[in-house]
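Re: that chain you flagged

S.,

Sorry for the slow reply, it's been a week of failed gels. I finally had a moment to sit down with the sequence you sent. For the record, here it is as I used it:
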Amino acid sequence: MTQLTDLTRTWGYHWDERRWHYRRSLASRVTLLTTMAVGLSVAFVALGAYATVRVQMTQALDDSLLQRAHRAAESTALSELISIELPSTALGAADIRIALITADGEVRTADDLPAIQLGSPERDVWAGRTESSVRTLTAGTDSYRVVAVQAAGGQALVLAQSLEPQDRVLQELGSVMTIFGFAGVITAGLAGWIVALNGLRPVRKLTLAAESIARTEDLRPLSVEGDDEIARLAIAFNSMLTALSASRDRQRQLVADAGHELRTPLTSLRTNLDLLAQTEYASDKHTGTPLPPEARRELLHDVRAQIEELTTLIGDLVELARDEPMTHVVEVIDLADVVDRALARVRRRAPNAAFDVHATSWWVYGEPTGLERAVTNLLDNAAKWGPPGGTVTVRLEHGTLTVDDEGPGIAAKDLPHVFERFYRSDESRAMPGSGLGLAIVAQVAERHAGAVRAAKSPSGGARLSVTLPGSPTAPPGTKVSSAEAPSDLAPAAPDQVADPATAVAGSAEDPQQSFSLPA
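Prediction finished late last night. Pasting the structure tokens below so you have them in one place:
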């Protein structure tokens, strides 16, 4: 072993059995395994057949010799026949040698063949200690099956039959089995190779298709034939292609829509900046009328608003670009607190809007930041569409957050599309916004296993609702997040948000709520 290691180090040869195994083709491995399995099976069958035939032939020979010996031992003329040196052939036993152990222990035989050295088993029979004995002895170059039985007059008869015919049969049987065994192994190898080639044809087809897809980026589904494991693999591959194609289409649509939405504020921003630059240049060169201060302030305000719009749009795009499942950094939070914080933020943006709020506690397992952004977008949308001085009605009951406004409402043709990315109705195209706010609401709800719905409110405006799974009470033993509202946000009016303790007590009486949160 040490010499082999030294030789490996000297010549730089490293044997990696696993690497060698997996670098071989699957067809060659299937063929090799099939050949080995058939070879082992043939070997075991051949050995079993050979051993069985040998045992059966030996047993038949022993039975025949014993039967002959007992019949011959009953003859009274046996000792006289042997005394006149009559050979075995004269007794009709050309393949048998006969010997007699007389009463005085002398071994007498009429054959002139090499003597068979009898031993204690035959002496035991002569002495009467055993009835018979059977064993194999060698005389010269030949092997004999020797049987001894008791004879009349205190004698013992010994019959010996040569094993040469039996050995010849067994040798021929072994040669035949060896030839047919090798033929079977070769046939099994060829059959395994053919089966592997035909059986792996769908795999090769699938491999070529995958390589073609990687080279051409053509995501069309593959044809599926049959219903076996390869067909199931092709179906799973098609499902992956469908998901990949949908993801690519969403990415392309997002890029195209983002480019379209960014073009308008960027063009307006560039126009305003060019106008400011031209007026400043004309004022410095005294070649034109300077821009009045009021117009300059209005232009700068417009630029600032466009920059804020761009910032919001880019933030919404980043949020929508997150196509992964909900992050693992989640907490058990009270949705009523999230509504409270979102209201404080929206009141600063829409001071002319009134909010009618009733929120009962609803504990959910989710992302505080994402949920607050979704609720804020719902409230911003309602405040934007409501008339000046209008009321936005907010209700949080049994896990469903409903926001109603008093605006013009949503047309029936627009209801199925309000939560789509960049979708804007004909009435909303003249108003600021990117069409991403409600899409973010739908994405956040989907990440939290919730649902969104758009309808018409009783006042004629729009009703947008979000339903999230949760529980009216916090699970016992769970660490609850108690994050405070940001310091730069105005607190909610105490008379507009329901008391959490009262809300929890009122909701806990509902027997329909049985949702349990993970600890």
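What I noticed first: The radius of gyration is 50 Å.

Talk soon,
D.
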